[in-house]
Amino acid sequence: MHLNISLKLICIIHLLFLLLIILKVSSEQCKTEIFTINPDKRDVKLHGFTYCSFDQTTPRGCLSKCIQRPLCHSYNYNMAHLTCELNMTPETLSEVYFQHDKGYIYIEIQHYRGNTSFNPCIGNPCSKNEICVRLKNKEIICIKDDVILPNKNPENVALGKLARQYTTLDSYSAYKAVDGLTTTFSHTDKILSPFWSVDLGTIYNIIRIEIINRDSSGKRLRDLDITVGPRDDDMSMCAHFTGPGTNGEHLVFQCKGWYIESRYVKMTIIKGPEEYLQLAEVKVFGYPTLG
Q1: What pTM value is reported for the model?
Q2: 144 in Cβ contact with 245 (< 8 Å)
C-alpha cells in the first residue's frame, strides 16, 4: 500500500518535472518566435508598397520570407490574423504612407540582414527578383521569385495623360488633376454620381493610387469608389474611400491583390445627394507590363 503511494508520488513528481521542462522549452520557443525584435512602428502598417502577402505565417516565418528576398525592404505583420505583407522599397518614408491599423507591426529588414541569428543567407549572390534559400547541407542557392517587378521604383504613369470628367465647372478641367501641380484642381458641376477618369495610354501594373485633396472644401471628397480596368467599359473595384476628406489631405490606396494590370483609373462619388467632385492631383504609380 505504502509502496504504491510512493510510486505514485514519484510518478507525479516526474510528470511535474517533465511539465516544467516542457513549459520552459515552450517559453523559450515563444520568446524565439517573437525573436525579441523591436518593431519600428506598432499598430501601423506601410501602405501602398506591398508586393506580396502570405496568410497563416508565424512572426519568424514572416521575417524569414522578407530577409530571404533582396527586394523586400520591410514587412507588415498582424499577430491576430497571422498575416505577413512584404513591402518593396519606398522612394520616401513619408508619414503619408503609414496607415493606422490596430494589431499590425511594421519592421524594416535592413536592421537584421547582417545578423547570422536572423539571416541564413549573409553574403548571398541573389538578385532582387530571386529568393535566397539555405539547404540542409548549408549550401546557399537562389531561386526565381514568383513575383517579378522591375528593379527601379514605379513612376507616376498618370502624369500628363488624357483625363476626363462627367461635367466641368468653369475652367477647372479634368487635366488639372494630372498636371503635376497641387495648386490647381479639377472640378465637376454639382451633380449626382460625378466621376473623373484618366487613360494611362497603355496597360500598366498599378502598384498604388494617390489622391491629393483640394486645399478648400475638402469634405466634398467622400463615398468615393476607385475602379481600374483594361478598358473604360471593363472596370473593377480597386478601393473605396468613405471620407469625408480634409483640406489638402494626401490619400494612398492599393488595390486588393497588391498590383493589377490596368489602363484606366476612374473615381466616382457613388452616394447622393448631388455633389461636386474636385481633385487637386491624382497619381497612379506603376510599371509597364512585362512581356
Answers
A1: 0.81
A2: no
Domain 41-144, CATH 3.50.4.10 — does that match? yes
Instruction: List the Cα angle 147/69/122 in 5-degree steps.
Output: 160
pLDDT digits (tens, 9 = 90+) for 166-221: 999 999 999 999 999 999 999 999 999 999 999 999 999 999 999 999 999 999 99
> Quick check: do 41-144 and 155-288 share a fold?
no
* Residue type present at position 213: N
Q: Measured between alpha carbons, how far is 68 from 17 in angstroms, rounded to an integer?
A: 39
Q: Where are the alpha helices (DSSP H) in 35-156?
A: 59-67
Q: How far is CA 264 from CA 7, 99, 186, 197, 226, in A?
A: 78, 26, 17, 7, 11
**Are the C-beta atoms of 45 and 65 separated by less than 8 Å?**
no
Sign of CA dihedral 277, 282, 285, 287: positive
Cβ burial 134-159 (10 Å sphere, 16+ → b, else e): eeeeeeeebeebeeebeeeebbbbbe
In 3-state terms, what secondary structure has residue 64? Answer: helix
Residue 24 DSSP SS3: helix
Distance of alpha carbon 118 from alpha carbon 15, whole angstroms: 35
Second-level CATH architecture of 155-288: Sandwich (2.60)
Longest Cα–Cα distance in the chain? 102
Helix axes 2-34, 59-67, angle to 10 degrees: 40
Domains of the chain, residue spans? 41-144, 155-288
pLDDT tens by residue, 26-36: 333 334 344 56
